[in-house]
Write a structure and sequence with these properties.
134 residues
Length: 134
Amino acid sequence: MTRRTTAPQGAGTFLKTALALQTLTLFCQAVTAGMLLTSPLAGEVHHVGSRVMYGASMLYVLAAILAWRPGGGSPRPVLHATGFLLLASAQVVLGIAHVSSLHVPLGVVMFALSTLALVRALSPHLLARPAARP
């Protein structure tokens, strides 16, 4: 009886897709936030986008769990996704409370973190540390 040590190929693809969707929704939220300065209709689009972004963050957690569980690999992606969902929760609360002084900078941080995670997921060899030479 052999035991699987890595997640199935589809789980990694699902994780990368969920992360890309999260990053895209954050970018769209930044665009609609800028549009709030010039268009009264942008408020509704931003509001709907916040729900989509939060759903994308939940999907990222699910994808991270599905990529981790089958093979018993590192739980690090699950911890990252869960931490991001907590940031998204804080972002939603700050947005509802209209605390722009924290809502806007947190949105920038979230987009940067999501973009970094996406780059790492798509090209892990680019950010890998070089091996020490003996």
